[in-house]
């Protein structure tokens, strides 16, 4: 990146897990970072840790599926840190259930956070990127986009993000903006720990069973995803756009 482009990133769902790791990595890479999450206390704590380490960051609480809150958050980041040229749409929730048990509310909540949230955040942020003729958008998909029992809402949302990403790449490429998606496999987070608890399985046993099915013989860590984000938002990734990168310890198809 040259001096003519601002080094400011926004990461949604940044209070914990993958989002928090991405925010820390981008701060280490020299970006000022806006950490956004429904958990305002969590992102403020994360931002304070980055600032204490010598970086620049702010934490903003919001519901990413709320248009007014999303636009206000992007405006605040632009005013306090500078015009954002990197957006990582990581915010996500799960409301798992089999199709015949799934409620309208469970469907709407997951689609709203993942798809509507990514849409309104990207629409708000892209003007800062197109204005500078440089930008990077990274959307968090999942291996569940390939289908996963009990996650019809989540799978649909994560598959939808792949089409969303490819269309962004087509529309925004002429403005120097790339768009890519990362599809993580099993990552050790509070979310996957909650899944193990719901199944009544100790988390360590759960991870060990999953790892046996992964070619590299371990589960993923949030830092594994953060490292790929770091590349995709770099100057060197300028010819990579519209791609879905499966970060899952082996091939997924």
Report on this model:
There is one protein chain. This protein is α/β, with parallel strands linked by helices and 253 residues long. It has 2 domains: 203 residues, NAD(P)-binding Rossmann-like Domain (Rossmann fold, 3-Layer(aba) Sandwich); 33 residues, no CATH class. It contains 8 helices and 7 strands; from the N terminus they run E-H-E-H-E-H-E-H-E-H-E-H-H-H-E. It has a 7-stranded parallel beta sheet, with helices on both faces. The mean pLDDT is 96.
List the helices and strands and how they pair.
Blueprint: E1 8-12, H1 17-28, E2 32-37, H2 40-52, E3 57-61, H3 67-80, E4 86-89, H4 104-132, E5 135-140, H5 152-172, E6 177-184, H6 190-199, H7 203-211, H8 222-232, E7 244-247
Parallel strand pairs: 1-2, 1-4, 2-3, 4-5, 5-6, 6-7
Helix pairs in contact: 1-8, 3-4, 4-5
Name its key features.
253 residues; alpha/beta; Rossmann fold; 8 helices; 7 strands; globular
Order of helices and strands: EHEHEHEHEHEHHHE
- Shape descriptor reads globular
Largest sheet: number of strands, sense, barrel closure: 7 strands, parallel
Number of E-state strands = 7
Helix content: 40-55%
- How many domains make up the 3D coordinates? 2
């Amino acid at each position: 990146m040259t001096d003519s482009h601002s080094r400011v990133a926004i990461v949604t769902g940044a209070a914990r897990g993958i989002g928090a790791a991405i925010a820390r990595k981008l701060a280490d890479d020299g970006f000022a970072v806006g950490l956004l999450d429904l958990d305002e206390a969590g992102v403020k704590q994360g931002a304070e840790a980055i600032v204490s380490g010598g970086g620049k960051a702010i934490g903003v609480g919001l519901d990413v599926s709320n248009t007014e809150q999303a636009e206000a958050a992007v405006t605040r980041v632009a005013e306090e840190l500078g015009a954002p040229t990197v957006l990582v749409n990581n915010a996500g929730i799960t409301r798992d259930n089999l199709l015949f048990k799934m409620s309208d509310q469970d469907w709407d909540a997951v689609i709203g956070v993942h798809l509507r949230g990514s849409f309104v955040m990207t629409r708000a942020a892209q003007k800062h990127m197109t204005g500078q003729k440089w930008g990077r958008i990274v959307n968090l998909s999942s291996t569940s986009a390939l289908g996963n029992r009990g996650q019809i809402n989540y799978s649909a949302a994560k598959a939808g993000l792949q089409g969303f990403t490819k269309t962004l790449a087509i529309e925004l490429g002429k403005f120097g903006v790339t768009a890519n998606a990362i599809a993580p496999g099993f990552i050790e987070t509070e979310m996957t720990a909650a899944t193990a608890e719901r199944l009544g399985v100790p988390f360590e046993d759960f991870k060990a069973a999953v790892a046996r099915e992964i070619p590299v013989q371990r589960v993923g860590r949030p830092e594994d995803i953060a490292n790929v984000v770091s590349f995709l938002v770099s100057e060197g990734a300028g010819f990579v756009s519209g791609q879905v990168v499966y970060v899952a310890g082996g091939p997924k198809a």
